[in-house]
Amino acid sequence: MELSEHIKTANVEDVTLRRPFHPALRGTLCVTSHHLLFSDRKDEASWQLLILLKNIDAIEKRAVGSSGTITIKCKDLLVLQLEIPGMEECLNIASSIEALSSLESVTEMYPFFYRPSHLTLNGPWGLSSTEQYYKQTERLWDRWRVSTLNSDYSVCPSYPSAVIMPREVDDDKLIRSARFRQGGRFPVLSYCHHRNGMVIMRSSQPLTGANKKRCKEDELLLQAVIDGSELGYIIDLRSAQQAQQARMTGGGFESKSFYSHWKRIHRHHERGKVVQESLIKLVEACSDPSHSVDRWLSKLENSKWLSHVHSALSTAGLVVECVERDGHSVLVHGSEGTDNTLLVSSLAQLILDPASRTVTGFLCLLEREWIQAGHPFQQRCAHSAYSHARLKQECPIFLLLLDCVWQVWRQFPLALEFSEALLLRLAQEVYASNYGTFLCNSEQERCAAGVKENTHCLFQSLLRPDIEEQYLNPLYEPTDLAIWPSVHPQSLQLWTGLFLRWTEYAQNMEEAREEVWSIVKEHHEQAGPDRTNNTLSTHCDTLTPFENLMDELTIL
Q1: Is residue 544 in some structural domain?
Q2: Average pLDDT over residues 465-481
Q3: Count of domains for the chain
Q4: Could you tell me if 154 and 241 lie in one domain?
Q5: CA-based diameter of the chain, in Å?
Q6: Based on the domain organization, do 345 and 431 belong to the same domain?
Q7: Contact partners, residue 52, CB within 8 Å, separation at least 6
Q8: 415, 483 in Cβ contact below 8 A?
Q9: How far apart are CA 222 and CA 239, in angstroms?
Q10: What count of other Cβ atoms lies within 10 Å of the Cβ of residue 90?
Q11: pLDDT digits over 31-50, tens only?
Q12: Distance (Å, rounded) from C-alpha 323 to C-alpha 192?
């Protein structure tokens, strides 16, 4: 079926558009295969609103006399209202939007049709690869190697074609280890610490089952990781009770008897539906201006969103403590190893690794730890907070990551090269994008669909000099030190720039924030190139004057 066949009415005149903070406009509404276009023509001037249909999360229809009203709720949390003359036209428009906003075929989505004049399909796609990371990390060269045993994705469908493994473990042992791990996600290297050579590994749960099965190759693999060290840590992102219950369904955990040099620590993280419903409750609280302050704070607390932020940052801090302070390697896993595992491992790297705090380094981190590592974006980001569809596999784990990074950025305004604007852009792109970066659920699926050959890469576009400048932090001062974010309740705040971005509060805050940043930037520049880096504390309980200023602004 051609996409155009879903369009029952292509154009409607005299449509009234209502949107936050703007007067109502009357104009023409057009529906195309991938966009909703509203044009307001007054005299010779023309104003247009273009919405990617993939960005629409839900629509609500109601009759008003002989006309109809469509309320459009977008995945970036924007809510619009269209008043359409003629009920038939209204129903046709609504039907077209519903069909075209929920396309399931990847090759029918807009990134396969997006052809901007300033980009070509012939250039490189992506920023880094496993091989590049290995070449750049000299500490890996003696004891580690790049394995291409998954080049055809037969060993693990959700892993990339190449992974970094201990040199003394051959590919046959890796294959046996993969059979012992859920989804074939055997332990692979995620990060090597630049100072002490300790590593962060990630995997899925072992399939020990009720009979407490073992796999000697998996045990040898983990023993090779610590290479004679006294101890390694396994951070299991489930409670001890959940890990025990997993054995009844074929899953399980690493036994002390067989992994004697590894100490297991349990840190419970919510998954899937629980986190998705938490986002829904949070957005519901933020979208209703009628609540009193007490009522609003109660709904915010009941959403438990900030509890998920706390859990993620707290566990990432534990991983960093094991690697940085105690000098031990760490294996992180939950059940599947495609969600919370990636969240914790990438946050730990942001805290540990100064390279990950640059614009390029952060995007490379996302590419390596989320896109190449097999986070199922298409499943997790099928809907946002407004959809009326029954929840399937949606879960805003990547959005939770961005929120955690924002918390770090707010606590350490000098430590990250990028600003909040980059995080907001990524939060929008992951749900609806012109680019192919977040399409599909794995590298295998992207290869099968021809994503790299037929779409443009978001990250490369963001690094174009004229674009990257929009996302730079004017206060950035590099430091080789680890940064330790505070997870005290008073230190974690609602990300107003995202969750209140379409409210009057956010509009006023944005103006005030721009004024504050201009003052801070001016002060920063006057300090001159010889200023010291003493203001950048590696512990959050010592805030800089800039952080105090931003905290005061946040309280307003």
Answers
A1: no
A2: 91
A3: 2
A4: yes
A5: 80
A6: yes
A7: 34, 35, 110, 432, 433, 434
A8: yes
A9: 22
A10: 25
A11: 999 999 999 876 566 789 99
A12: 10
The DSSP secondary-structure symbol of 7 reads -
Is the pLDDT higher at 517 or at 435?
435
* Residue 56, domain member (yes or no): yes
> What residues make up the domain containing 59?
3-103
Q: Check if the beta carbon of residue 201 is closer than 8 Å to that of residue 188.
A: yes
Quickly tell me which residue has 């045993």 as its tokens: 149
Mode of pairing for the β-strands spanning 199-202 and 330-333: parallel
Helices (H), 111-196: 130-136, 171-179
Please indicate, yes or no, if residue 462 is contained in any of the structural domains: yes
Q: What angle do CA 399, 304, 341 make, to 5 degrees?
A: 45
The span from the CA of 388 to the CA of 14, in Å, is: 29
User: 50: how many CB neighbours lie within 10 A of its CB?
Assistant: 11
Same domain, 388 and 443: yes
pTM: 0.91
What tens digit of pLDDT does each residue of 485-523 get? Answer: 999 999 999 999 999 988 766 666 666 666 766 776 676
Same domain, 155 and 98: no
* DSSP state string for 315-373: HHHHHHIIIIIS---EEEE-SSSSSHHHHHHHHHHHHH-GGGGSHHHHHHHHIIIIITT
Opening angle at CA 26, ends 89 and 86, nearest 5: 20
Q: Edge to edge, what strands does the sheet with 79-84 contain?
A: 45-52, 35-42, 25-31, 11-18, 79-84, 67-74, 56-64
424 located within any domain? yes
Q: How far is Cα of residue 289 from the mean position of the Cα atoms in its chain?
A: 28
- Clarify whether residues 310 and 449 are in a common domain: yes
Q: Which of 479, 499, 519 delimits the end of a domain? A: 499
Q: What is the pLDDT of residues 107-133, one digit of tens each?
A: 999 999 999 888 888 878 899 999 999
Please identify, among 447, 468, 499, the residue that sits at the C-terminal boundary of a domain.
499
Provide the CATH number for the domain around residue 91: 2.30.29.30
Residue 354 has a pLDDT of: 96
